[in-house]
Design brief:
Length: about 240
Amino acid sequence: MPETIVEVSQYKGQKSLVINCTQLGDSFTPQYKTTKQKRAVLDEWCDFLRSEQEAFHELSFCTKMPQELFDAVCCQRNLKSLHIKWGSYESLDALANLSSLKSLFVGSGAIVKSIAPIATLTGLESLAVENFQKISDYSVFSNLQNLKSLEVSGDGLSPKFIHIDSLEFLRQMSGLTSLVILVARLKSKDYSPILSLKSLTHLSLPPQHALFGLFDELSALPNLKTGLLKERAEIYKKR
């Protein structure tokens, strides 16, 4: 597990880090008392990430990420893995800079306006997007032909459901081995495109009436071993 740090001054050349540089002044970081102190920590990280563009291979952020920090992180051109727990980012445009990225988790993106920048990251092998309330068309993800793992989910804690127009784009993603769609409502009510994903070993879907009739076929996918369809089959039975 990578080390967790707060300030740039704690950085010792690690290629993998967890950086928690916002939401300071809580019980874990009581030494940051003023707005000025908290702002200085964020500004230092933004400056560092923009100026030292080859510093990191793997970064995680577990505290709230503002747009300016998101944009600064996307200057890290050698980044292979980026995990963002949650934040207040509208634009994902800067992601287009991260051509080396293999793994991306963008959590709680309730105000994200477009997922087109993600579709430019054709080297991605693992992608998870969470609570994208303003997005319903995910068809551009079919551009990600190296993707092995895809998760598109709402916010399971609230819960806040997302809406997905159609899963038709999955027919073009035959390389997927893991698919998770949860806390989501499918407008087309057609889950049959998933049947074309013969390489799936892991599958979790929302227990909705629209897929109950397909359950037997889905659970019989030739390589399926784990996920809710295998481990919680009872939730997909008609009540």
